[in-house]
């Protein structure tokens, strides 16, 4: 009820906004910085470091876009948004784009008036339980109490999963990841369910992570990606291709360290086109020749960003899995740059 | 009450008119509270108004400084007619002092500050001078040593005397009293009445709502009896008390003097 | 009168005073009277004491004895604690240590920390004469200038901007002087309105160009710090102090307006108060943060903090108005009449007689509203402003510290407690000081 009210309001606002700001790129250039909506705090994806700088896997997308436009990864300001405020903030023009674990769904793309420009993390919903419960499969969860974040896709998936398997559960509704963590550890629920990346990140912070297991079942598709307002296709293209540039860079072995070098010219015409050594591709999205060089220099290619913030070497410790390049058996498949 | 002989040498009534009320009527909603009031008060006159409760005495004197608004007729105070012109109203109010039944001192200010407030802010008297004037009148009402206390620390009689001093500090040309003693214990009534008598002796124009008939006899030169919103009878005090004309006056006097 | 003989009595000597019997004074008596008067009360006392005794050592152990003060991450904290043989939970204050500056200033540039610190120190100077009546009244001049000075210190940029904003008041005063001329009562209201209009016109059209012109002639500016960099307690104080400072006068005007005889004015005030009170603060904040964008002409950049300050002020002012209206209603009619009878006009009688008393009666309610407002500033975290509560989430998401909860919230709670407790003690001091009636 509450949920649909909010969605309705957001949709109405989205309609009104479509007309309001027609040329986001020009507005952004005039402002001198990009305004990027991020999560209020998800380990590995969006957080502040000791110097008060925003960091994270999602934040890196914002920085890459800022660098592509201004040549400066710091020309971006962040607006922390919660699961509930994220769509209003984007629709109203408070932020220029949103890069915070948001699942690309039909109604968000169409009815709410947004455009998802791609996927930066293929996720899926999982379950975490205490090891001593002896549960090995989600199919054994009949009658369990489940901690679940309201207003998310996970809430709906959960209901679907239990219904199709003829099981019952008792939901414990919560607002944020942090609240879920406390409730779960305090035993207020047997199971915590959210995006598997979130589960891994959360488990990594437990005193004794080994006492908890993430069950093998992944019950949904959660493609998380950046989104922009519907109606300004040029702006959408710019964000889409910045993300693609990072993915292509990994595929082609372009890194933050060697990008300057490679920009001088290589044997690979696609790399040359991307890095501006050949053709005038930057112009097509209203940017300079070296836009992709700047975007890659900002935080490295997709793989570098992944490894730095959420990879296996980090406390979050996620394997590439579905997020490997298509050449490695993953789903990352950027369209050709030509 | 006070039966000592009083000095009447200053108590002369001039021909100059201080307050003139012509055919004045007032309603509270549908209720006709004052009916065809005609009253002329000359400078130096001391008028006592009496009458049963609810007869409109308070309303009448409150109309004179427009704490209440009249709807018909005319009131002229000190040559200025009372209309809705705010400027005139404030002017008249600063010339007309008023003393209330419940003193209405300002509890958050000291006695001295109560007395200097209006002179400083309305008359623009310098503070120094205002304080000197205030001390003068506080001495007159015989409580100079309480100047730095707060009203809550004074007895009722003392508070009422401060209220009189406060009004006098504005150097008013007319003083209105609305039952100044009826909230007081008997011993305090005397100290307040003495102060009022002294004031009368100095020739102040006074309109007094009171049931202190001793006071009326001693200082009033006219007593007005009101009932049901109209002036029923007025006369010099001796005649009024000894020889009332109207039946209602007789009944009223028999009730208040009866015991 | 009948048996007058038998009741006649004359005292033959005066009885000297003697000390009270033991058992009716002293600590034992006090304890019996206050702690164990009845079996039920005795039981309650014992249970409460037991509860406190059980809880306090645990808290002290958690927060002090077993706590870790210096570490680089939660994992390191745990290592240190285990090495020291701590079992069970303990406080890892290292995180507050590391993020202290963020809690204080948000993302304010660290080399400029002296500016907000100076602004805070000057705030104390500016508040002193307002809070303590025995300080020289001349200090109030500084208090009046302070808001502009603080704005300049915190946001920086050209000094001419706040100066020209201040000049708006000078413009209003000059216009008022020129237009009022005599002491015409109606003329006064009109002159005041015209003066207000002049000031608004100045602010809208002349102020910024005047500032630019002056800046061109005599550049006087310090480094600009944008609103997005403000956060933590600095932000909470900016919102709280400006909301408190502005909501009181606005609340007074609304309360007077609500009691006014002019139907239009009264209607506006009633509608405003009822509307604001009927809407949750969080809604107003959402309006400020997102919906306002739709109503403003495109391209206007209207600082988010400014918008929030306005909303918070309006919200508190509506409550303030009702608190003050209660105070006004509690005053006897005689006070209004006595003031009028002395010839004081409306504004003077309000300022000198009615409001001092009404405000005094309302002190507990006013301070209550202040405290509520100050705590409500934490709601801005939902619109993405990083106040002390909002700034916790991104800190906690840092992999180094993820998992810490109590330390963050405990620290913020302590901060709010100190300020709110201070306000409540001050209000008690003030009540005692202003108690002049029944001594
Ligand atoms: N504000 C008012 N609204 C309506 N009726 C009023 C109001 N004030 C007074 N009255 C009525 O007007 C009448 C006259 O009141 P007023 O106070 O003048 O009487 P009074 O002669 O002074 O009586 P008392 O001796 O009891 O003071 C009374 O019947 C009273 O109920
Ligand atoms: N992907 C889902 C769920 C996203 C979700 O709930 N993510 C959590 C973290 S795993 C979150 O964003 N939390 C933000 C917060 O706690 O502030 C959606 O888009 O609805
Ligand atoms: Mg009366």
Automatic annotation (TrEMBL), chain B:
Q: What is this protein called?
A: L-glutamine ABC transporter ATP-binding protein /L-glutamate ABC transporter ATP-binding protein /L-aspartate ABC transporter ATP-binding protein /L-asparagine ABC transporter ATP-binding protein
- What span is annotated as the signal peptide, if there is one? none
| Species assigned in the record | Oceanicella actignis
Instruction: Reply yes or no: does the keyword GTP-binding apply.
Output: no
Q: Which InterPro entries match?
A: AAA+_ATPase, ABC_ATPase_HisP-typ, ABC_transporter-like_ATP-bd, ABC_transporter-like_CS, MetN_ABC_transporter-like, P-loop_NTPase
Q: Which GO terms describe its molecular function?
A: ABC-type amino acid transporter activity; ATP binding; ATP hydrolysis activity
One Pfam family it belongs to: ABC_tran
**According to its UniProt record, which protein family does this protein belong to?**
Belongs to the ABC transporter superfamily.
Q: What are the UniProt keywords, alphabetically?
A: ATP-binding, Nucleotide-binding, Transport
- Record PANTHER family: AMINO ACID IMPORT ATP-BINDING PROTEIN, PHOSPHONATES IMPORT ATP-BINDING PROTEIN PHNC
The yes or no answer to whether the keyword Hydrolase is present is: no
Per the database record, which ranges form the ABC transporter domain? 19-253
């Amino acid at each position: 009820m509450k949920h649909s009210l909010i969605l309705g309001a957001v949709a109405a606002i989205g309609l009104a906004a479509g007309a309001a700001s027609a040329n986001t790129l020009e507005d952004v250039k005039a402002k001198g910085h990009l305004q990027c909506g991020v999560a209020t705090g998800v380990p590995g994806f969006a957080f502040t470091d000791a110097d008060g700088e925003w960091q994270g896997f999602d934040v890196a997308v914002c920085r890459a876009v800022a660098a592509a436009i201004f040549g400066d990864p710091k020309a971006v300001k962040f607006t922390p948004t919660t699961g509930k405020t994220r769509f209003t903030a984007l629709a109203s023009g408070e932020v220029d784009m949103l890069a915070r674990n948001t699942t690309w769904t039909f109604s968000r793309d169409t009815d709410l008036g947004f455009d998802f420009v791609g996927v930066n993390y293929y996720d899926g919903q999982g379950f975490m339980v205490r090891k001593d419960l002896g549960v090995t499969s989600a199919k054994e969860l009949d009658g369990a109490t489940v901690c679940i974040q309201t207003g998310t896709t996970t809430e709906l998936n959960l209901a679907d999963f239990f219904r199709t398997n003829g099981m019952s559960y008792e939901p414990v509704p919560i607002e944020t990841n942090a609240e879920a963590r406390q409730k779960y550890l305090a035993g207020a629920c047997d199971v915590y369910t959210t995006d598997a990346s979130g589960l891994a990140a959360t488990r990594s912070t437990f005193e004794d992570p080994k006492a908890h297991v993430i069950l093998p079942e992944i019950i949904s598709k959660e493609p998380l990606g950046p989104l922009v307002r519907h109606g300004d296709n040029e702006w959408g293209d710019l964000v889409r291709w910045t993300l693609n540039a990072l993915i292509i860079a990994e595929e082609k072995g372009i890194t933050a360290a060697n990008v300057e070098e490679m920009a001088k010219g290589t044997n690979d015409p696609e790399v040359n086109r991307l890095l501006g050594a050949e053709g005038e591709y930057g112009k097509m999205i209203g940017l300079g020749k070296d836009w992709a060089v700047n975007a890659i220099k900002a935080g490295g290619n997709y793989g570098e960003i992944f490894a730095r913030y959420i990879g296996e070497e980090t406390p979050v410790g996620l394997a590439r899995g579905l997020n490997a390049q298509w050449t490695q058996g993953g789903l990352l498949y950027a369209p050709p740059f030509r | 009450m006070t039966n000592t002989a009083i000095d009447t040498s200053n108590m002369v009534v001039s021909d100059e008119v201080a307050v003139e009320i012509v055919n004045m009527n007032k309603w509270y909603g549908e209720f006709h509270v004052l009916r065809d009031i005609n009253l002329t008060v000359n400078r130096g006159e001391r008028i006592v108004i009496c009458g049963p409760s609810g007869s409109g005495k308070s309303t009448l004197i409150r109309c004179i400084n427009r704490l209440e608004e009249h709807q018909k007729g005319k009131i002229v105070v000190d040559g200025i007619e009372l209309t809705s012109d705010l400027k005139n109203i404030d002017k008249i109010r600063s010339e007309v002092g008023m003393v209330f039944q419940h003193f209405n001192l300002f509890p958050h200010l000291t006695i001295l500050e109560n007395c200097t407030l209006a002179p400083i802010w309305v008359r623009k008297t310098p503070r120094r001078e205002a304080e000197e004037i205030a001390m003068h009148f506080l001495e007159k009402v015989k409580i100079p040593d309480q100047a730095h206390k707060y009203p809550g620390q004074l007895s009722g009689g003392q508070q009422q005397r401060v209220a009189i001093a406060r009004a006098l500090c504005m150097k008013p040309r007319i003083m209105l009293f609305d039952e100044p003693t009826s909230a007081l214990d008997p011993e305090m009534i005397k100290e307040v009445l003495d102060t009022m008598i002294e004031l009368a002796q100095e020739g102040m124009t006074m309109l007094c709502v009171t049931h202190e008939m001793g006071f009326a006899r001693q200082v009033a030169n006219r007593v007005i009896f009101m009932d049901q919103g109209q002036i029923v009878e007025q006369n010099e005090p001796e005649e009024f008390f000894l020889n009332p004309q109207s039946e209602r006056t007789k009944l009223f006097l028999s009730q208040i003097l009866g015991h | 009168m009948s048996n007058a003989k038998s009741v006649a009595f004359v005292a033959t000597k005066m009885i000297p005073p003697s000390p009270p019997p033991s058992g009716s004074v002293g600590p034992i008596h006090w304890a019996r009277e206050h702690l164990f008067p009845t079996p039920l009360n005795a039981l309650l006392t014992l249970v409460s004491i037991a509860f406190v005794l059980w809880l306090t050592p645990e808290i002290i152990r958690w927060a002090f004895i077993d706590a870790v003060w210096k570490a680089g991450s939660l994992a390191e904290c745990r290592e240190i604690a285990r090495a020291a043989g701590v079992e069970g939970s303990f406080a890892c204050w290292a995180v507050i240590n590391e993020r202290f500056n963020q809690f204080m200033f948000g993302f304010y540039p660290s080399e400029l920390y002296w500016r907000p610190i100076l602004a805070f120190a000057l705030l104390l100077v500016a508040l002193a004469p307002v809070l303590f009546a025995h300080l020289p009244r001349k200090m109030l001049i500084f208090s009046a200038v302070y808001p502009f000075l603080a704005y300049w210190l915190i946001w920086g940029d050209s000094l001419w901007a706040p100066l020209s904003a201040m000049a708006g008041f000078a413009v209003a005063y000059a216009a008022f002087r020129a237009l009022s001329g005599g002491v015409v009562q109606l003329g006064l209201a009109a002159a005041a309105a015209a003066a207000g209009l002049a000031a608004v016109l100045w602010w809208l059209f002349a102020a910024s160009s005047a500032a630019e012109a002056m800046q061109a002639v005599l550049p006087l500016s310090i480094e600009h710090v944008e609103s997005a960099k403000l956060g933590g307690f600095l932000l909470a104080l900016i919102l709280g102090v400006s909301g408190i400072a502005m909501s009181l006068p606005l609340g007074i005007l609304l309360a007077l307006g609500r009691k006014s005889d002019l139907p239009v004015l009264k209607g506006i005030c009633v509608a405003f108060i009822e509307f604001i009170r009927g809407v949750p603060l969080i809604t107003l904040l959402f309006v400020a943060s997102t919906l306002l964008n739709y109503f403003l002409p495109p391209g206007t950049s209207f600082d988010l903090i400014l918008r929030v300050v306005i909303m918070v002020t309006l919200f508190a002012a509506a409550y303030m108005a009702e608190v003050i209206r209660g105070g006004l209603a509690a005053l006897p009619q005689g006070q209004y009449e006595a003031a009028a009878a002395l010839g004081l006009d409306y504004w003077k009688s309000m300022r000198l007689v009615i409001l001092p008393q009404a405000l005094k009666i309302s002190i507990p309610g006013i301070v209550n509203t202040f405290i509520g407002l100050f705590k409500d500033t934490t709601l801005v975290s939902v619109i993405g402003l990083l106040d002390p509560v909002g700034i916790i989430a991104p800190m906690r998401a840092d992999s180094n510290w993820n998992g810490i909860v109590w330390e963050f919230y405990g620290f913020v709670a302590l901060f709010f407690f100190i300020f709110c407790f201070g306000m409540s003690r001050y209000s008690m001091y003030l009540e005692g000081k202003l108690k002049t009636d029944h001594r």
